[in-house]
Design a protein that fits this description.
single chain; alpha/beta; Rossmann fold; 2 domains; globular
């Protein structure tokens, strides 16, 4: 039986706010869900029409039919914008949701449909590697080499055994080790996709948030975004970590609300 194409109809999307409100999309990070973006959805749905996504393989959304990278995720969301909303939107992206947002805002076909970006510790900018990273990387290559010299089917059997061994799990990231199948392949394709060569194409005004206790994203990565996106500003959240919108929701919500509405003319009551 032929596999049905994966469409946005299969995603869990929590919709709230007035139907006449400006459309606002929320994209969570890797290993997260719409639930962890709920504080923003609850606060901003008083005036925005909020679409809070569970991305494929997260929350209540099924995984993609095959390993997906950033372009496939972006295309799925873009189809939703064009077919269900039909006009430009604002996007709030956290971590990997920020990476997807940056890609969309830099794609010529997608960019006209994005008015503003609000990015909370977005990924997609390579960080400076430490000696520990290169040690793990070289050790992993050394462990794989003997198995790659074997003929099939022994080669794949050996590599599969290695991938499930304790040593290999210790070398890999905790996110990678917890995954299997399609989502493991999706993780690899996604985290190895970088957007730094696309930043100067972005025309959408961009507001950046970063917690000064964030151990996943560095201040150097944030400065790259701030400097290379033509219209971008950075707010540093004191005593906040990677989930800045959960650690300091008041600042994130207030600044986001102002940023998304400041260009709209105020309504003057008739005297």
């Amino acid at each position: 039986m032929a596999q049905m194409p994966f469409g946005y109809e299969q995603l869990n999307i929590e919709i709230s706010g007035p139907e006449t409100g400006a459309p606002l999309l929320l994209l969570h990070g890797w290993g997260s869900s719409a639930q962890l973006m709920g504080v923003l959805a609850d606060a901003l749905s008083d005036e925005f029409r909020v679409y809070n996504f569970d991305l494929p393989g997260h929350g209540s959304s099924p995984p993609p039919p095959e390993p997906w990278g950033v372009p496939e995720h972006a295309e799925l969301i873009f189809r939703f914008i064009k077919e269900r909303i039909g006009k430009p939107v604002d996007i709030i992206g956290h971590s990997n949701g920020g990476r997807i947002s940056l890609y969309m805002a830099s794609e010529p076909e997608m960019a006209p449909f994005i008015k503003h970006l609000v990015l909370i510790s977005p990924s997609g900018i390579p960080r400076q590697r430490t000696w520990k990273y290169y040690l793990r990387s070289n050790l992993a290559k050394a462990l794989k080499t003997p198995f790659q010299l074997l003929p099939e089917p022994f080669r794949e059997f050996g590599l599969d055994w290695l991938r499930h061994s304790l040593v290999w799990k210790l070398l890999g990231s905790s996110d990678y080790s917890r995954l299997e199948g399609v989502m493991r392949g999706t993780f690899v394709k996604t985290v190895n996709f970088y957007v730094q060569d696309r930043l100067q194409r972005i025309k959408a005004p961009t507001l950046l948030f970063w917690g000064n206790r964030d151990e996943a994203i560095t201040i150097a990565q944030m400065h790259t975004l701030e400097q290379d996106i033509p219209d971008a500003g950075l707010i540093i959240l004191e005593n906040a970590g990677h989930y800045g919108h959960l650690d300091d929701p008041d600042t994130v919500i207030a600044a986001t609300r102002y940023f998304l509405t400041e260009e709209q003319p105020e309504t003057v009551a008739a005297s």
